[in-house]
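Look over this today:
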Amino acid sequence: MSNLSSLAKSSAIMTAGTLTSRILGLVKASLLAMAIGVTAVQADAFDVANKVPNTLYMLLAGGVVNAVLVPQLVRASKRKDGGEDYTNRLLTLAFLILAAVGLIATLAAPLLVWLYSSGWGPDQMALATAFAYWCLPQLFFYGLYTLLGQVLNAKSSFGPYMWAPVLNNVVAIVGLLVFILMFGTDKASPHGLSTWDPGMIALLAGSATLGVVAQALILIWPLKRIGFKYKPTFGFRGVGLATAGKVAFWTFSAMLIGQIGFLIISRVAAGASVPGEGNASNAAYSYGYLVFMLPHSLIAVSLATALFTSLSKNAANKDTEAVVGDFSMGVRMVGLINSFAVAALIVLASPVAMIIAGDGREQAMAVGLVIIAMVFGLIPFSANYLAQRVFYAYEDAKTPFFIQLPQVIFQSLLVLSASIFPNSVTVAIIGLAMSLGYLLAMILSFTLLKKRLGDIDLRGILTAHMKFLVAALIAGIAGYGLLFFFPDFALSGQWQAFVSTAAVGTLMLIVFLGACYLLKVRELHSIIGVVAGKLRK
């Protein structure tokens, strides 16, 4: 089982990087809303174009890299050369595939925009396609970033991978500031479909892509610092890549199923985008998802990244007890933070939406409703994410595929039903459908994991989460009580929303921690013990 102090240190470094990146991401999102709006048709055009490369990457390589690389490199490190030749061949093959896919995707920009949109007029399609030509090269650099980052993670160098997106956001923010200085805000100088020229398109979309390029290339420096030297090595037969290929096949299949589900979400959400109505649609979905992913990225991803190397080593050594211990600790630690996040985001959904999406009470309430619907799925989403890492540590990507399949079918049926509701609540219904899908996936994952390992400390996990949720409920009541005294102030402007969120959020955190302490939540006491031990040194 991983040492809690060591795990806490690694997670803290990654969490700090992710937190900095996410804060800058919120700044970037706010500036983007200022520049081109949130519920405007041009905002949806850019959102789809900028989202397609990330979506395609996750389909074609993201899950594959995350599932394959670390376990394979950990096992390869036992070879005489420390796995150097194997790593070079695996990276060379991945680079070639990414380059080919990136080129084909860029050439297919019009088709991809059509796939991820619905009911758009020719002008909106043309603008989105122009954005896409600039954004689709991101696909290759997302892949490069993840490949290099996973090499670092396999060698227990976790910090650079989580800090690199900070540079991405800085570059994108500079680009947005230049755009606003040159072309004004959407409110001061409305950027309708007919106002976009090649220079505006190149600046907005090009700076977004430049940020992803910087995020990938910055990882070359820490790789050199740990002594890793990449040498292009060809010849992919007979070197042990068969297992990696098998895992990659099932992971790709799972990602394909997942992206079909996302395609349905994107098209149904796009159908709510009607010029002049200002409904929550794709852009509002992206803002809601950004908020939803914040606590998951800060805690679950950081902790899972630190645990994955340990899980892979323990799985390779057939130490089931250590695997179960790591998994149980990870789920409980993540659940502690996520329980507070659920309560805080339900109470403060609309003020948080106003902070990132700009002034406008109706707009904030529309995005806030989306956040609330999504955040109900946060705890099962993160728990399922950690369960997947256990399967991957055993080089098993087939089981996650058969978990993903019923989840996506169930979720997609619910998403399609959202189109029968008024456009004003379509995206909120989509968010609720996603939450229910995450719950189903978690139940399936835990059931199959228990069957494989014999025990996953389910009783301990459930007992801990019951305490977390009681503390979260108490904190939520306290937050609503404070917010009751100034409901209009909280949504009267961005700075007022920020002040309200800070004040209510601080009160809720104090109440939550106090309730956890009184409920004798052992995870909190463990964290306090680690911190106290560090302070005494």
Remarks:
- Residues 4-272+279-536 form one domain.
